[in-house]
Amino acid sequence: VAGDGEKEALPHCNLQVYTYTCDVGKRENVYSTAERVQKEVGEVSVLVNNAGVVSGHHLLECPDELIERTMMVNCHAHFWTTKAFLPKMLEMNHGHIVTVASSLGLFSTAGVEDYCASKFGAVGFHESLSHELKAAEKDGIKTTLVCPYLVDTGMFRGCRIRKEIEPFLPPLKPEYCVKQAMRAILTDQPMICTPRLMYMVTFMKSILPFEAVVCMYRFLGADKCMYPFIAQRKQATNNNEAKNGI
């Protein structure tokens, strides 16, 4: 963007965009869509795994099928998409695999067990895959792990930390997260956490005893930060049930 509120003119390019509808939680759907992409568009050199869902229920109140959906979309889908597109990357020794995880894939909080487990799984998958590519000496295939803090997309609407801390850790704008992620991808950065404070929280969690981590969470108000979000989801569900019953 140029100065004085004027947008910088982009060079004219004859670009063609293809879109496909795919349920990434179903491996047959992923594989069939991948075949269509390779046939109609060509080989994929950049794979971004970004799909994510959350149940919004406490563990004992969460239907089993919602837990399974969270794991399938947030974690298992990474296996299917990677298996679909990695072979050609290996053949060409060229490509980039981007895993959009979450800060909740590095440290957890109460009430969103399904989401945390799925994001921890995605992080573990990404790290193991990165090591495998290095061991195979496929240096032309890059990997980037993206772990943002709460993003203002409405997915976790109602999530609140301690009010005195909120001004220092506001929800992130999606555009900012995309910009940071793109910068990391274009510079082959292995991992990006936004904001940078997340690096410190992850480091503290790795060196402090568990009880000290609990104290830190309570000080930040992060121990029950998802409770207002879950309460809102429950209220919305009850309202929908009431409306459907009328």
From TrEMBL:
According to its UniProt record, where is this protein located?
Answer: Endoplasmic reticulum membrane; Microsome membrane
Q: Does the keyword Kinase apply?
A: no
Q: Where are the transmembrane segments?
A: none
GO molecular function (one): all-trans-retinol dehydrogenase (NADP+) activity
Any Pfam family from its record, for instance, is: adh_short
**Which EC number(s) does the record attach to this protein?**
1.1.1.300
Tell me yes or no: is RNA-binding among this UniProt entry's keywords. no
Give, as in the UniProt entry, the pathway in which the protein acts: Cofactor metabolism; retinol metabolism
GO CC terms, sorted: endoplasmic reticulum membrane; lipid droplet
Q: Give the catalysed reaction(s), semicolon-separated.
A: all-trans-retinol + NADP(+) = all-trans-retinal + NADPH + H(+)
Source domain of life is Eukaryota
Per UniProt, the keywords (alphabetical) are: Endoplasmic reticulum, Membrane, Microsome, NADP, Oxidoreductase, Signal-anchor, Transmembrane, Transmembrane helix
Membrane topology recorded in Swiss-Prot or TrEMBL? Single-pass membrane protein
Q: Which family does the record claim for this protein?
A: Belongs to the short-chain dehydrogenases/reductases (SDR) family.
Under which name does UniProt file this protein?
NADP-retinol dehydrogenase
Q: Which organism is it from?
A: Chloroceryle aenea
